Amino acid sequence: FMFTLQDGYDLFPRDSDGKLIYSDTMYTDTWKAMEKLVEKGVVKSIGLSNFNCQQINEILAMAKIPPVTNQV
Asked: Which residue among 39, 55, 62, 71 is buried most deeply as judged by most CB within 10 Å?
């Protein structure tokens, strides 16, 4: 399970104690939303960036549309 930073304009959002604030959105949920954009014709293809082997396998196991790349 990988944590992502909280959504917003601050690249590294922190709480009042200086600790990073993480998002509760899973990257698999984001992938499903991106697939819907492909189906609607809004984007042509979708890919990954800096995913490790476990994360790639999780996406491949649930994806209707496979990623075109894993940018590193």
From this structure: 55
Per DSSP, the residues of 17-72 read TSPBPEE---HHHHHHHHHHHHHHTS-S---EES--HHHHHHHHHH-SS--S-EE-
Q: Please report where in the chains the tokens 């959002």 appear, as a residue.
A: 13
Global pTM value: 0.73
C-beta neighbour count of 56 within 10 angstroms: 13
Tokens 């899973």 sit on residue? 26
Closest C-alpha to 36, from 71, 55, 4, 64: 64
Look up residue 12 and give its two tokens: 């590294």
